[in-house]
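User: Please fill in residues for this 413-position structure.
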């Protein structure tokens, strides 16, 4: 071992100061050949391997089992085994490694490895969690076949090298990241609960199509809501950026609203010359006619994050004149307006991902809104407060994820 390679990470737990040693995984992990021959597990115990959620019950994760009636040839997985999927994913062209957190069975196409006295499988999973590290590790070992299939034996996937501390430090590191992952999962669960609550309240605090009052209202309001044309409560904005008051190109993200194009795409899609673009000011709205699976009639968002920005003239821009602005934000978070747009968009005309609806037709759409401005304001303020809480929770979650990313770089070599 005179030529062994050793290193130390930037951040370590107290009490550990020995060098980490580079070793082949074949020297420290054991290939599992155990099959479900006695049918100790059935279709309900089949596991899926997710990059985001780890090992999960397939029925709970995907809504059904994709296994056949006979699962006797499936591989048995025990808690803290290491699984290698051998399936390409976006960002992980050679598949992923995941630590098993529950017992079950998986497809015989996957590889399963046991821990040994000198290597703790969850540590290896964390080490190879980074897509770049995993790709660097696997690329010399794997060959790609027809239809992008991955060709490598269970044993062959262990022929690469990574750095190991002693097994006590491996367990300490694994326990730390397990705790951090649990915290991230908890914060993500809170975020999802808040988003589901908002979705439910949007359904209950706005009248369903054809109705004149919502299911839930603030005390003191009993009048029917009325239909108003968008053109009667707002004014179209066609202001051009002739004097280059702004060079900030914007795009509409259905999830995040009007955002900086460069930050969102990591590049500028807009032309270098943005003098002929629309100039938006804070508080103005834009309708993006681009449709997607989740947003079949496009998205309407308000500029909140910047004082000014520029948008392609493919967008329809407007500002509220006779309606509460926060109420309008909430209204366009519902799907109540979809029917109106669908009735006016040209039949079958969806060219290059854009709905064929003119500005005149868009402003001719009917909105059902409260006649009382105070009710509009209360609804708008309620959802504004909820959006702020969701944004705060999302920010907390992102900070935890960034912290994990930084620690993965500093606690490994």
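Assistant: Residues filled in for all 413 positions:
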């Amino acid at each position: 071992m005179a030529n062994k390679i050793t290193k130390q990470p930037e951040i370590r737990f107290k009490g550990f100061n020995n060098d980490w040693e580079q070793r082949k995984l074949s020297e420290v992990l054991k290939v599992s050949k155990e099959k479900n021959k006695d049918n100790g597990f059935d279709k309900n115990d089949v596991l899926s391997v997710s990059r985001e959620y780890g090992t999960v019950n397939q029925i709970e994760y995907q809504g059904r089992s994709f296994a056949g009636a006979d699962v006797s040839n499936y591989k048995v997985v025990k808690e803290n085994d290491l699984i290698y999927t051998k399936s390409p994913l976006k960002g992980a062209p050679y598949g992923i490694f995941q630590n098993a957190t529950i017992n079950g069975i998986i497809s015989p196409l996957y590889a399963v490895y046991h821990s040994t006295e000198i290597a703790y499988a969850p540590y290896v999973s964390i080490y190879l969690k980074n897509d770049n590290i995993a790709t660097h590790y696997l690329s010399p070992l794997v060959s790609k076949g027809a239809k992008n299939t991955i060709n490598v034996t269970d044993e062959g996937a262990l022929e690469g090298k990574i750095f190991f501390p002693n097994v006590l430090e491996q367990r300490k590191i694994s326990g730390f990241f397990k705790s951090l992952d649990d915290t991230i999962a908890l914060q993500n669960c809170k975020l999802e609960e808040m988003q589901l609550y908002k979705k439910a309240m949007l359904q209950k605090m706005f009248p369903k199509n054809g109705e004149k009052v919502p299911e839930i209202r603030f005390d003191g309001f009993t009048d029917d809501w009325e239909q108003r044309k968008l053109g009667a409560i707002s004014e179209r904005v066609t202001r051009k950026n002739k004097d280059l008051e702004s060079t900030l190109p914007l795009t509409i993200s259905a999830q995040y609203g009007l955002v900086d194009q460069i930050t969102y795409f990591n590049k500028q899609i807009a032309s270098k010359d943005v003098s002929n673009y629309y100039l938006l000011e804070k508080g103005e709205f834009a309708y993006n006619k681009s449709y997607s699976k989740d947003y079949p009639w496009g998205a309407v968002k308000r500029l909140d994050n910047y004082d000014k920005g520029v948008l392609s003239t493919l967008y329809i821009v407007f500002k509220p004149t006779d309606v509460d602005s926060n109420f309008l934000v909430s209204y366009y978070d519902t799907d109540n307006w979809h029917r109106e747009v669908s009735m006016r968009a040209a039949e079958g005309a969806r060219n290059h991902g854009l709905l064929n609806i003119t500005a005149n037709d868009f402003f001719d759409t009917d909105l059902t809104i409260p006649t009382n401005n105070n009710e509009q304001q209360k609804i708008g303020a309620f959802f504004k407060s909820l959006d702020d809480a969701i944004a705060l929770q999302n920010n907390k979650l992102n900070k935890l994820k960034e912290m994990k990313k930084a620690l993965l770089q500093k606690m490994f070599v």
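For context: The chain has two domains: 19-164, 226-369.
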